[in-house]
Amino acid sequence: MCLRTVGADNANTDELIENLEAVANQTKRAGEIVKHIKDFTRKRAPHETTVDINTLVKGISDFIHIDIRKNKVSLNLALAEELPPLLADFVQIEQALLNLVINSIEAMADVELEQRRLTIQTQMSTDHSIEVAVIDTGQGISAENSEKIFDSFFTTKPAGLGLGLTISQSIIDAHKGRLWAEANPDCGVTFRFTLPVAGSSI
């Protein structure tokens, strides 16, 4: 909007100033929204219960089956057996994982149908934490963007808001875990996060 105004032959200075002020106000408001989301996630006492991570993952797979079918993605669950329980807010962890899964499905939109594979994996990371991995065969991430993907409002999607990964990171951080992304050797991205098991002192 501002660029169109600047480029007009009869550019109106007052209109330009008004447009710039509107952009500044919207940017400020957007920043306040993100801060509110982060503060809410970090400061609200999680409703901690004993969580079986594999049960949570299976619930996510049931929830997204329509998206999986619509986007013709092959879903594989690689769940380690007899994992110890987590002490976590089930709804928050579910939301964090769902954001990662939806992000991966969308990342494969331009990939050949037979190459669209999504894997959700669980395993022990250390004696005190469980690792969850979301592995896709999408377009991957460039070295330039790998440091930005968790930034608020950073997105490579035309219609994306750039908040899903930010929210997921805030949730995992609030649970004393860690979330990161790494490029796969062949194609796609793997998002990994760790969470301490119930009774650990992490």
What this model shows, in words?
The chain has 202 residues and is an alpha+beta fold. It folds into 2 domains: 1-42; 47-196, Histidine kinase-like ATPase, C-terminal domain (Heat Shock Protein 90, 2-Layer Sandwich), CATH 3.30.565.10. It contains 6 helices and 7 strands. It has helices at residues 2-7, 13-43, 53-63, 65-70, 90-107, 164-174; strands at residues 48-51, 74-79, 86-89, 117-126, 129-136, 178-183, 189-196. The strands form 2 sheets. A 5-stranded mixed beta sheet has the order 2-4-5-7-6. It has a two-stranded antiparallel sheet with strand order 1-3. A hairpin with a 5-residue loop joins strand 6 (178-183) and strand 7. Helix 2 (13-43) runs parallel beside helix 6 (164-174). The model is unreliable at 1-9 and 158-162 (pLDDT under 50).
Tally of structural domains: 2
Largest sheet: number of strands, sense, barrel closure: 5 strands, mixed
CATH architecture of the largest domain: 2-Layer Sandwich
Written as H for each helix and E for each strand, in order along the chain, the element string is HHEHHEEHEEHEE
- CATH class of the largest domain reads Alpha Beta
CATH superfamily of the largest domain: Histidine kinase-like ATPase, C-terminal domain
CATH topology label of the largest domain: Heat Shock Protein 90
Q: What share of residues are in beta strands? A: 15-25%
Q: Assign the structural class, choosing from mainly alpha, mainly beta, alpha/beta, alpha+beta, or little secondary structure.
A: alpha+beta
Q: Describe the strand arrangement of the main beta sheet, using strand numbers.
A: 2-4-5-7-6
Helix tally equals: 6
| Helical fraction | 40-55%
